[in-house]
Every structure is written in C-alpha cells, then in structure tokens.
Amino acid sequence: MVDVLVGCIDKFLAKIGRQLIVKTQHFLGYVLYYNNYIKSLKEQLKKFEVKRKGVSLEPDEATRNEESVEPRVNEWQQRFTNVDIISEESTKFLEDEVPTNIPKISYDAPPLAIGHQSSTKFRNFESRIPTINRLIKWLEDDSENIISICGMGGSGKTTMAQEVATRVKGKKMFDEIIFIVVSKDHNLMMVQEGLAKGLGLRFKATNLEGRTDELRKRLLQSKKGNLVILDDVWKHIDLKYIGFPFGKEYNCKVLLTSGSVDACKAMGCLDILRLDVLTPSEAWSLLGEVVGDSLYDPNLHETASEIAKCCEGLPTAVVCLGRALKDKSHEVWKDTLKKLEQSIVLENIVGVKEEVYKSLQSSYDLLEDEEAKKIFILCCLYPKYANVPIESLVRCGVGLKFFTGVDLLIEVRDTVYKLTDKLKSHFLLSTGDRKSTVKVHGVVRAVGISIAFKSNPNMEQFSALVIHEDRWPRGILNRDYNAVSVVSNEISEIPSRGLNFKKLELIQLACPKISLEKLNTVFKGMNKLRVVEVWNMYIPSFSSLITSLPRDIFSLCTDCKMDNIGDVIRPEEFTNLEILSFGRCDIEEVPVQVGKFANLKLLDLSRCHRLERISPGVISSLRLLEELDTGSKWWGDEKEGDVSLAELESLTNLTYLGIRVKSSNFLPKNPLFEKLQRYVISVGVHIEKTRSFNNKMVLLKHDSTDTSLGGGIDKLLRKNTEKVFLCGDGMKTALKELVLSGFQQVKNLTVESCNSEETAYLLDYNYIPSGTGVFNNLEKLTMKKMWCFKGILRHNGEGLPPKSFSRLRKIVLSVLPELTHLFKQSVVKNLVLLESLHIEYCIDMEQVILNPWSSTLESTTENKILLPKLTELIMNDVVNLVCFSKGGNLQVEFPQLKVLKLEYLQNFYTFCPEEINMAFKANHRGATFQSLIDHKVEFSSLAELTLTNVGNIKEVWCGQMPNLVHLQGLYIKFCHMMEQVLFIERPSITTIEERIVFLKLKEVILFGSNRLTYFCRGIDHVEFPQLRVLRLCWLPHFRSFCQEDSNGHPSSVFDDKVTFPNLETLEVSELYSVKELWSNQLATSQFGKLISLRVDKCHKLVNIFPSDLQAQFPTLEKLEVEECDSLENVWDFHGVQIRSLKSVHVYECPNLKNMCSFNTFKGLSSLQTIDICKCEMMETVVADDHKHGITDEVLSLVKLEEVKLAFLRNLNYFSHKKCDMELAELTQVIVKYCPNLYTFSHATLGTALATTTDSKLESAASSSRTITIQDRKTDELR
C-alpha cells in the first residue's frame, strides 16, 4: 500500500512541481496582463494543497501514536521544499478556496484545537484586563509551568481560559492547546483520556502507569510545547503521575481553573490569580447586552437596576437572569426582584439553578469539614451585605458546641479564623469591609439559606430559618430548626400562636418595632435555647430582658440601646451562662449582681462608651473568666465604690484583657499583664481603637524619661506585641524593649508627638548583630510630629538581610522637620510589598531615597529603584523636596502605581535627575526646567495623577510616547512653570502622524497654570474616548490642545485635532488668549453627549456659537456664560439650534447686545429658564434676523417656565421681531432695574401669566402667577 502511495506521490508531484514553477514564473512576470494564468495557477494550487493535506494526514497520525513512517515519505517532504516555498509565495497573492467535501480515506480526523473556536462569551471588561494580561505574560515566561485562575462559581473562569486559548492560538505560541473539563467527580484515567483525545493519541496501554508513559512521550514530541487547560478542578491532581513532563527543558504549560485555592496550592501552583466579580457598571453593561433595548424602558429601569445589584457582579447570574427575563412583562421582573431580595433560590427560572446555584452548592458539598459548613451557614443568617464579625461566629460556635476537643476560647477563636480562611479559599466567604469581619456574596448566601432550610436537624445537620421580611411567613413557623434569624424593621407583632420552636438552639432578633413586653413572650417553650443574639432594639434594662430567657442559655450577646443593667433577679440560676456581651449600651455602672454569673468565661463591655464604674467584687468573683474587656472605664486612681487593678490578680485563667489605664504612673509594680496571650492595653491614650479579642496591642503615652514601665508591659513589648502606638517624650523607654528583638514581632507601629533627642532613630543597625533581620513582620509604619527624628534606620548603607522590611505595606510620615530622606537605596530592594507611601510636612527632606551612586556612573551599570507593589504615592507640602532620588544612570519603576499625588512641592522638578540642580532653590535663576516623568521613569499602571503647586516642572511627560492606557483622572493646579502637559520629541522633518489616545481618562482639570499654552506638543491628534468632565480654568496663555500649525492662523481651543465623543461637562474659564472656542472644521458629532457648558472670563470671545460651527450639541441642557467682556452675542445670527437646551444663564457681559437671533431662538424648543443679568449694552434678548420687524409666524416655546431679566439698563424689548408668542408654561417673570424695557414683544403674548398686547409689562402684575417688576428709580416692588 505504501509503495503504491509513494509512487503516486512521486508522479503527481513531479507534474505539479513542473506546472507550478512554470505558472509561477509567468504569474510573477506578467500578472498584470495574463488573467488566464492566474486562473490556472489557482486551480493547480488547489489541487496541490488538497493532495498534500490528504496524503500527510496518515503520517501525522502515525507520528502522534509513535508509529514508524515510511522513509520515502520523509524523503519526498525534503525533495519538494522548493515547491513549498513557491507555493507559499504564490498564496500571498491568491486566496486559497479549499473545498469542504473531501472524502475520508482511512484515517482519524486530527484533533480540533480549542483556539479554533471563537470565544464569543468573553467581554473585555476593564476589571478583567489585568488578569488576562498576566496570563498571557505568564505563557511567554519560561520560569513557571503552572498557573491558576481561582474564583467563585459563575465568576467567568472558564470563559477567560477559553479566551486565553484563543489568543494564544492566534500567536502560534504552542503546537497544541488541549482543553479538559475535569469536574468534581473526576478520576486520573478520565483526565488521561481527555488529554489523549486532545493530542490525537490512541492509548495502547490499559493501565494508568502505561498510559502515563505514552502521554509523556507524546507531549515531548512538540517543538513549541503544549498548553493544557484543566477546567473546573476541585481536588488535587498529581500531574506528573498522569504524564506531564515538567522542567525547564520542557515547555509544557498547565492552566487551572478552580473554585478552591487549596486544591491549586496542593498541585504546586504558586501563581494564583483571583478572579473577582464584575464592577456595578460592568454588571449593568452585561445585563444590557443580554436584555437589549428594553432595559432602558423608564418603567423597567429601576427594577432592572436593583436586579443587577442583587447579582453583585456575578457574571453567570447576570447572564442567566437577563436571558430569562428578556422580553418578559414588568410584573415578572418585579416578582423576580422580590425573590432575590428575600434570598430565595430561583428554581423555576430556566438555567439559573443549573448554571448559577449548582456550582456554588458543589463548593459547599466538597468542603469535607462539618465545622466549616456550620460556620458558613452561620454567616448566611446575618443580613444581606452585612459585615459579619468573626467574634460573633466564635461566640455562637462555642454556644452551639460546634467544636470538639477545643476548650479555651482563645483556641476556638484560632479555629474560627482558620475555618473562615478555608471558606475564603473556596470563595464561599470574602474579607469584610471592616477589620475582623467577613462577607457573603448575595447569590452564595441564597444558596446557604436554601441549604440550611432544607437540612434535617434529626440527622445531625444544622438547619436554619431566615426571616428578613416585612411580615411573618406562613406555614413554616412550627418546624424544627437549630437556628432562626428574624431581622425586620417592620415586624411589630408576635404570631398569635407564638414561635413554637421547641428544638431551637440559636435565635437572632433585630426588630426595633417589637416592644419589650412582646419580646419577653418570644422565648416561651424554647427550652433548648443556648445562644441569644439581640441587636438594633431598645431594651430599658438588662434585667428586663434576662428574666424572660431560659435559664440554660450559654451565650447572650446584646447590641442594643440600653440605659442600665438594672436589678438582676436570681442571676445565680444561670449556671450555664459563659458568654455575656454588651454592645452600644449607655450603661454607666456594672452592679454587683453581675458578679453572681459565676461561670462566665467571657465578659465583653468593649462598646460601653459611657461606662465609668464597676462595683468592687464583681471582677474578683468571676474567677473562671478567660476574656475580659472593660470598655471605656479608666483604671487607676479609683474612687470609692469602684473596682481596683488588684482584683485582676484573682483572674488566673485570663488570656485576653481589654483595659484603659489613666497613665503610666498607675501601672502596678507587679507583672500583672505578663501572661496575657491577647490584649488591648491603653495607657494614657484617649484614641478610640477598634477592639478585637484577637489583638496583641499596646497604646502607650509615656512622658517621663527616667521611669520604667510597670505591670509587665515591658515584657509584652519584648515578647509578642504586634500593634504598638507610642507617644510622649519618654517613649524611648518602650522603644528599648522593642529594639532588643529588632522589632521582629511588630506588625503595626505608630510613633508620634515626641520632642526628645533620644529618639533621633527608631533603630541603630550598627548595634545589631550582623545578619540579623529587623522589622521582619512590620506591615504599617506611621511617624508623626517627631521634632528630632532623623531616620527610621541608622546604618552604613549596606544591604539588609532579605526579610527586613519585606512585609511592609504602608508608610505614613508627617511633620518630621529633621528628616532628610526615607531610606538609603540599599534598603529599597527589601520593600517588595510596599503599597502606599504618604509623606507630608517634612520640611528638610530633599529626596525620598538616598542614592549613593555618583552621577558619573558608567552607563552599563544597573542603577534601579523598583517598588513592584506600590499603588499609591502621596507627597504633600515637602517644601525642599527636589526629586524622588538622584544618581547616575538611575531608573525608577513603579509598575503597579495607580495614584500619584504631588502637592505643594515648590522645589520639585523631576523624579530622578543625575544631580540636584541647586539653581531651583534660588528663585529659578540659571535653572533649566525639566519634565516630571521621562524615559527613566515607568508608571505603566497610573490611574490618577494630581499635581498641585509643583513649581519647577515644564511638562508632565517628555520623550517617547508614554503608556497612559490606565489613566482615569488628571488634575493639574497652580503649576506655574508648566508649558504643556505632554511633549513628544520628533524629528524636525517627518511625515508620520503621531496620535495619542487616553483610553480610560474620564476627568481632566487644568487650573491656575500661567504658562500652559498647549495640552500637548509633538502630537498631531489626541483622543479622549471616555472623557466625561473637562475643566480648563485660569490658564491665561492657553491656546489649544495640540500645538498650532506654523501657518499662523488663529487657533481654536477645540479643533479637528482633538476629539471628545463622550464629554458631558465642559468648563472654560479665564482663558485670556482664546478668541475662538471651536473650529469650523469640527465634526457634527464632536460634542454629541455634552450636557453642561460653562464659559467664564474669556475676554476675547465675540460669541459662543459662531454661524459657521458644524457641531450640533444635541444633548446640551445647561449653558452658563459669565464675565466675557468682548462677547456681543451668545449665538451668532445663524448659530446652531440646540433643541435640548433647558437653561441659559448670562451674567456680566458688558458688550452683549443680544442673546441670539429669532431663528435660533425658536429652535430652543426645550428651554425652561432664561436668566440674564448685568449686561449693560443689551438692547433685546432675541434679535431680528433680517430687520423686517414683523412676521406672521407664532413663536411657541411650550416649556419655558421662568424669565429673569436684571440690571439691563438699555434693554428695550425681549424680542425685537413682531410676532405672536405662545409661552404656555411661563409661570414666573422677574424684571429688576430694566428702566427702558417698554414691552415684552411688539405683538400678542400668550402666557400662563396674562395676555399682554403692546402695553407696559406692568399690566401683567394683576395675574395670579408670579411677576416681579422693580424700577431702578423707586427701588420698590410693584
């Protein structure tokens, strides 16, 4: 068979080769003359390609399955290389039309690569761009073999993976791209089958090990390598065990998509990209794509907006609901919204249950940890969008006996933090907006509530009922549940039959309209109740609540307005009560009866901000206490009837203490606090810090420089304190304790208000043993009002151990007059996680980073400052700062910087000069102004730039075209030396057009820059496709956006070189050099979405809208014109008619003669308000176009409601043209100090005020509507 085949090939190719060469020669030489040759060549090429592809399929299949190929076939492929080259050259000119009906001979079809499929589901939303760019960059990098996209079910992981495959296929980066759906029920053999199918491999072996060897050999055949996408991974898969060849010598890349971070980590994935939900605007846009134009129906808009909000950015939920609701009635939309607001699973909507809820349910089912499942259900009981305190989960979990083998509360807390982290890694929870809280996505919460409602408490499942509605539901109040949550601002009654929950263990109540009397009936029959949470209600006294509770409750947490504790009757009966918490209470005293809750292990008074006294004996009686927080009470120097610090000594089990001591003078001499494991101890500090029972925090004001610290605080600082706040001249005493360990354990350090010379540095590294890391765990550093402070670290400039400062994320420096720099350059390489740097009022600082390299450094020597995670840089009122850092061959890279604010830096002139130019400190004499950002600086992710009074910069960007694709806000104020914002260097003679697009820029404010002439130079065209707000104010020399041509023609601010297709708000003010706002070359759509226009103090303008203006302004609603001295009319005689305009306000334009012509005025059909004031030369508001003076046409402005004319001493008429005017909605006319106004119009005036025909306007004063006329002579209203 092979012999016959090869023989055919030889004969065929010999003929085809001869014909192809001949025809190609003719084609190349005479293509313009011999069309028949073209036709013939096409036919020969088609035959050649069809035959070659058909014959090559069998050898390709053999290669995929590791079979030998006849040598003569390989010889043939080599012999006809020249033919292939000619074929390639020919097909550049000809379109290959391959027929689709090729008959199958005797081979399997090659596998269809995923890249061939169009990923039409992917939307290139802004929030998705960084993730997909990171994926493409990873694929181009050889350092890592595996990466993962992790996110909650329905967040778009699969869609993104498909898009990556499509893009990679287009770039031809890999030989094969294989897409395998793993799913939760996978096994290794199934994964191997999917991989083999994608590779076109037929297994010979039947066992796992044999197939592994076959797969590895097949994957190693690829020259460019392979990309394998494993979609929907739930558990660990041993990739090497099933055949993946990993290593630097193999280019085999694996992309995972998963709802479990833990599973990806277990597979050796170090680079995990978390895919968040869409932003609100993106979710709304996606819903609009699915639903179509009906989304913008005014009757539907509000409901649709709320539905989009309920989806909380989950793409699958948005798409499924949009698809299901498309073309449905308003009633269906409203019913769906009601169910979503009640967190009801929408099982009756096609696709929602399968595509949205199923994967989320699977995330819960695969937890394999019953404790984690119960904690998740607990979180779902709290209101939608709530920040659920982890401390509440601890207290409920203890009361419900969720945790086995854990006795101490501190151990339970550690367990709960671990479980919430696990739930976050499975995307069932997310980090809350407040510290020590978590949140549940609304759709995930609906799934949790459904699971809890369907659970059977008799089968050891945790069941729960959530009632967060305006009324009690029907028919479900008599079932057995473990937990019930009732949160409602409307429920005010208890069901007549009561709440018959006999097996209830937990109840949450937040119903402010339920009275105390009715509240006390709620708990009847709940004999198994263990945990009670009550919040957002008014309870006069604690005693009035606790008397109605079952005596066996374990945990009672109130967060209610409460006046006092009251007289608690028989507290000793509550023998099981171990947790008692008061939140937001107004109690001032803890009475002695509280001490009779003898088995209490936790007493929380942390948010009792009026607490002043605790009765003596209460604390010492609670000998089993493990955790105590005494809120706002001050300890030390107690008066009679108040507890003393000595009582704390009896609490031998105490592990957490929250306490405030009046001053360090009252600290006991014995080490009272030494054995605490968690604590918030405030000594002399009145700052209200968030209390967390998981904290290790000391807040200390110490003024004495010669006294030691008592109470064991010195040992806490030395041992394990993580958050430290120090102030006072004696803080050196506390710093000594921290220095001993090199600040190793401190995570958050704040030091302020010290005038002692002993605190010039936080740490002198010269006295630290060589190689010892310092500040290894520091995450946030704040330094304020340190009058003698010179630096954070004193050292010789050599590099620090790698872990030093390696976790630092935020630095705040304020009012440090002796500080000259932040760090030496050798320290910067350790700041790998620094995200925010804020410096203000450091008057002696010249540069932020001190660079030791000389300006004569060789160009080949790398000298770089890299802060890879910095997202925010703010420098304010650092008056002597001239640069960020200086040095030869220096480069600055902040690849993640999003916010840059430089304000009141009068001497700052560039980021990284080679030397500091001292001329800038001598009134600019001899100074050559520079660019703020040039080729040595990289801010490729910059989103917001603010420059205020940065005195010495000529332009912001200079040199090559900058990367400004992410810029969204640009704010430049009082930069008096700035001549342009952007300057691109170009050859003196060039025909290449330079164009720059600010793709995401939404707001630009340029204010108070005296020398600013152009926005950009060296640019032919600038585009602002997303710009919404533009304000150009107090720019006396500003002429245009792009530099004008050399022909000398007067420039316009807005010409055909700049485009704003989405601009909504425009303000131009104090542009003293501008004679024209708009060029007559503007496209009609240029300002197609402008809503508001304000023109102020542009003294050379003659009109706002000239006659030859092409732009239409179809959406303009508001026009304000003020103090334009040369303005003669707002609209020229043939000015554009703006039919959407609603209000016109014109003030203090002394040469204004009229507002517009009659023809223009009649086109202002939406006008509602006219307000003209202090225009002394105005003779008429509406001028006659042709001076004919009379017309039969009726002027009808049916929406005009208000006319105000004031201080117009030369005004004779409102309209000079004689015509009838219909102003049906005119309800208010105010005329002040217009002494020469004779009549409103020369003809009939029909208004809602009155009908006035050629008479004094005062005659309308008898109307029931408002008309005010004030004569300048009498100064009185008539």
UniProtKB/TrEMBL annotation:
UniProt entry tagged with the keyword Nucleotide-binding? yes
User: What is a biological process (GO) this protein takes part in?
Assistant: defense response
> Where's the Disease resistance protein At4g27190-like leucine-rich repeats domain?
732-842, 1063-1135, 1138-1239
UniProt keyword annotation of Glycoprotein present: no
- Residue limits of the NB-ARC domain? 131-293
Can you name one GO molecular function term for this protein? ATP binding
InterPro entries according to UniProt: Apaf_helical, At4g27190-like_LRR, LRR_dom_sf, NB-ARC, P-loop_NTPase, Plant_NBS-LRR
Keywords on this record?
Answer: ATP-binding, Leucine-rich repeat, Nucleotide-binding, Plant defense
Describe the family membership recorded for this protein in Swiss-Prot or TrEMBL. Answer: Belongs to the disease resistance NB-LRR family.
What is the official name of this protein in its record? NB-ARC domain-containing protein
Organism name:
Tagetes erecta (African marigold)
